[in-house]
Amino acid sequence: MARVIVDVMLKPEILDPQGQAITRALPRLGFSGVADVRQGKRFEVELDGPADEAAISDVRKMAETLLANTVIEDFTVRVED
Amino acid sequence: MARVIVDVMLKPEILDPQGQAITRALPRLGFSGVADVRQGKRFEVELDGPADEAAISDVRKMAETLLANTVIEDFTVRVED
């Protein structure tokens, strides 16, 4: 069993209201020194078999069609060590 | 400017309905070989200064108080290469 991580983040040019709300809340809560926060999604995909090239390619297709909205989001796929 | 990543995932013993919905949808969509999917959150925190020990410790406090609900969620903090 291998674990593949899919990270999905809004594209840089897309406004992120959740991240902005966090960024603005931080000074009120006593945290300084943070320029920006962006919020995205993280998926942990447990495979039945090994994380070979075919499996990774499948997960990439999965991310494209199901996990990310590629109009507004970018995603990365990586095998967890 | 340094970027610190905070990953927030439901604790393993907490039910993840979103992840379960994805796991169940996959075979219908033609994807096989996935045992489980869990969904969490990923935060990209841009610091004004370097990611030194004090800054990382601040981000950890931020994660504990604001980004994660530590009753049901675990989080990890790491500096992006």
Automatic annotation (TrEMBL), chains A, B:
Where is this gene product found?
A: Cytoplasm
Recorded metabolic or biological pathway in which this protein acts: Purine metabolism; IMP biosynthesis via de novo pathway; 5-amino-1-(5-phospho-D-ribosyl)imidazole from N(2)-formyl-N(1)-(5-phospho-D-ribosyl)glycinamide: step 1/2
Sorted alphabetically, which InterPro entries does this protein's record hold?
PurS, PurS-like_sf
User: Any idea of its EC number?
Assistant: 6.3.5.3
Question: Gene3D superfamilies in the record, alphabetically?
Answer: Phosphoribosylformylglycinamidine synthase subunit PurS
Q: Name one GO molecular function term.
A: phosphoribosylformylglycinamidine synthase activity
Q: Where does it primarily localize?
A: cytoplasm
Q: Name one GO biological process term.
A: 'de novo' IMP biosynthetic process
Protein role: Part of the phosphoribosylformylglycinamidine synthase complex involved in the purines biosynthetic pathway. Catalyzes the ATP-dependent conversion of formylglycinamide ribonucleotide (FGAR) and glutamine to yield formylglycinamidine ribonucleotide (FGAM) and glutamate. The FGAM synthase complex is composed of three subunits. PurQ produces an ammonia molecule by converting glutamine to glutamate. PurL transfers the ammonia molecule to FGAR to form FGAM in an ATP-dependent manner.
Oligomer status and interactors: Part of the FGAM synthase complex composed of 1 PurL, 1 PurQ and 2 PurS subunits.
Instruction: Return the NCBIfam families for the record.
Output: phosphoribosylformylglycinamidine synthase subunit PurS, PRK05974.1
Give the protein family: Belongs to the PurS family.
Protein name in UniProt: Phosphoribosylformylglycinamidine synthase subunit PurS
Q: What is the lineage of its organism?
A: Bacteria, Bacillati, Actinomycetota, Actinomycetes, Streptosporangiales
